[in-house]
Amino acid sequence: MSGIHHVTAVAGDSHKNYSFYTRDLGLRFVKKTVNFDDPATYHFYYGDETGRPGTILTFFPWEGAPEGRRGVGETHQTTFRVPQRSIGYWTQRFLEKGIKFEALEKRFGEPVLAFSDPDGMALALVGVAGAADEAGWSNGDVPEEHAIRGFQGVTLLIEDATRTAKVLTDVFGFRETAREGSVIRFMAPGDANGNVVDIYEAKGFLRGRQGRGSVHHIAFRAKDDAEQGSMAEKLVSNHGLHPTEQKDRNYFRSIYFREPGGVLFEIATDIPGFAVDEPVETLGRDLKLPSFLESHRKEIEGVLPELQGAA
Question: Of 6, 120, 165, 260, which is least surrounded by CB within 10 A?
């Protein structure tokens, strides 16, 4: 499988973030851990029942973080798949919940309901014809038939699409499938979640500024270490890009690089997955720490805000 593994963004208030994604959107709270490079900050993972690659949206909730500014060199929008017939359900739900959304539009022949989270992160639900046949996870509030099925993909805002497109096609196996105005659509083979990357070519736009509501990075899938290594070799030899050394993130292993358009990309392995340190039945219940931080658990728990209802 290829496509997007996960998307990581910056939030502000951890309670609002948790409530919005678990209660309002009905995603499963898959993992409660910390930013391994900044252990005083939570790292939240939301997704489907088991946290399959292609369903995971993650956040660093940095309390008091300044608001980000959308612009060139950033992810413009993150989109989720829902069954086409569910768009009406979600429109009504957003009205009832007071969630800001935009008028329904069509992109590449599919209905798109754009909305924002409490930090202003740009999101959208895409009505996908075959999504009704895919498994949905219910939180007991959002009915399974209308549940989010994982990612559709992301839209990148790029000054010039040429070199970014070459990385997507040569390294990640995407191919250009359509154009609509200034947007070029790339799709990964197969029908896995997160198989769409749209490049919105925006010459002369203001550069983005990272902050609350911004996407921090996009992670693409590698089956295992060997496939990740092969992708890294292509980045160096074919594109003159130099990824970081591999970092162990407990649930996947990662390398990072800045793609030519300025967006931070990651390549994450599908293995070992989120059940490596707790059973699927209780995913997200307890604070999980990597082994190198376990001896500091008491002090870490002392600085993290208490998360009401996250059990």
Answer: 120
pLDDT of residue 310: 55
Query: Which pLDDT tens digit goes with each residue over 222-231?
Result: 999 999 999 9
Q: SS3 for 291?
A: helix
Judged by DSSP in three states, 268 sits in: strand
| DSSP 8-state assignment for residue 292 | G
Does the pLDDT value for residue 280 go beyond 90?
yes
- CB atoms closer than 10 angstroms to residue 182: 12
CB 182 within 8 Å of CB 202: yes
Query: Residue 79: CB partners within 8 Å, gap ≥ 6?
Result: 112, 123, 124, 125, 126, 151, 152, 153, 154, 155, 196
How far apart (Å, rounded) are the C-alpha atoms in residues 269 and 222? 5
- CA-to-CA dists, residue 305 to 15, 41, 215, angstroms: 9, 9, 22
Class of residue 98 by CB neighbours under 10 A (exposed 0-12, middle 13-18, buried 19+): exposed
